[in-house]
């Protein structure tokens, strides 16, 4: 007789109770039904298919898009005594054959496989020869052709239902707005499946958006309060990744670069160091991150504007998976908008795809320029209503000032019109402020009626006006005209004085000392407990290095804090702490108890 889900939760994974909707999902899938699960990053999605795979007869087949994600999950499962393996291109032929032999012999509880391999005739025939407990489709948003992580192979995974209609399927994602949710259900034949949708809120993450002035200096100011902490800094280009990583190393940070232009061995080594070492900062393009399961990432910083709110949510969601306070910091300016619009228009996608991408960028601009609660705006993009201001974002903690910018907007829009709608913000600001430049003289713009009428605002203030006029839809960026600004229909009532315009007043800070509010995810440690916690961390680090695995797959910080606080004296007491299952108790229990004993001062 198979163990019950709760017995597996306690005995294998070391937890007394399910969280949120986990219990309902597990019960539903164990009973043989299909499910579509939407949970935020860190919400415990993996247990929703791992426990049913252990509770049902046969092997659970997990479709996963990334090699690093598979390896990470398998290492964590092996630590708790679960027979798990993966099949992907990183394995040599002999090793892959060993895994297949274990699969055919019924020795595997869970097998992770890339969609490309799963869909081969050879592998499908292999699956015909085994008992399948379930199919889990992880990162299910990869099926969406409009999404930022589109994987064409995911669209063929409906074959699983056609070929094995009696095997339950569970699709899981942390990133899907309502249209993407519908697309997942349709493409994977999960329209009849029960949908489990949890709140997308990550209450421990503090969101902050700053206007780009001196981005490198602003980044260093933000990071000053995060020395020694693990984090991710996202940049749009490979060159900027390399330059930023070098800057951080010069400032004493343990910073590594990650982008698609690096040798695959270097990329793998840098990702491994990020996962295994303490306090590593990875500077990366969006090539880095999906499936990163490191729980103690304390910050995610964006040096450039992401491409969509979905992408931003997923990237920031890599912070604070342990439930402890974390920060999401975004630095952006009008140049980011120009560059992203150029990337959209110059891409090979069809007009339908470009229209969707423009809409996603506009929604992100609305988030950046919002004067209301960031969390309310962000969650609304996922179809969720957040009932009241969150109190944990920059706009809630430091409400922005607004000002009547109607006259300034009229001056800016008139300048765009009178200069022929052929120039970008930098030149237009020079005209408005009456600058004496060769370019102004070349085009005769010193003779325009708008020349010098904006001397009352400095260049930074005018940059803010133009940026917000683009975000408000009064100006559009000509992606093929080197960022030239054009008037839109929305500009007409502003120019005519038929409407007023209120804009936010930017305050440029090069130092941001706003620490994230503490989220109660465990006991508070006094100095003596903290010393014990550090001894436990040192033990965990040694064990991790011996096995060449990330420290968190042995014990999470939350488990170590609970041990340091309760000071168990016997193995039976240690077994009652969350995160200490039977396998870990057997492997590490005595070493943990020994570490709790105060060292002899002599």
From TrEMBL:
Cofactor: Mg(2+); Zn(2+)
GO cellular component, one term: bacterial nucleoid
Domain Helicase ATP-binding residues, every copy: 26-194
GO aspect biological process, one term: DNA replication
Protein's UniProt keywords contain ATP-binding: yes
GO MF annotations in UniProt: 3'-5' DNA helicase activity; ATP binding; DNA binding; four-way junction helicase activity; hydrolase activity; metal ion binding
Catalytic activity: Couples ATP hydrolysis with the unwinding of duplex DNA by translocating in the 3'-5' direction
Known EC number: 5.6.2.4
SUPFAM superfamilies named among the record's database cross-references: HRDC-like, P-loop containing nucleoside triphosphate hydrolases
Domain Helicase C-terminal: 215-362
Keywords associated with the record: ATP-binding, DNA damage, DNA recombination, DNA repair, DNA-binding, Helicase, Hydrolase, Isomerase, Metal-binding, Nucleotide-binding, Zinc
Membrane-spanning intervals of the chain: none
Pfam family for this entry, one: RecQ_Zn_bind
Superkingdom field: Bacteria
Domain HRDC, first and last residues per copy: 526-602
NCBIfam families tied to this protein: recQ, recQ_fam
Protein name: DNA helicase RecQ
Organism of provenance: Coralloluteibacterium stylophorae
Gene it is expressed from: recQ
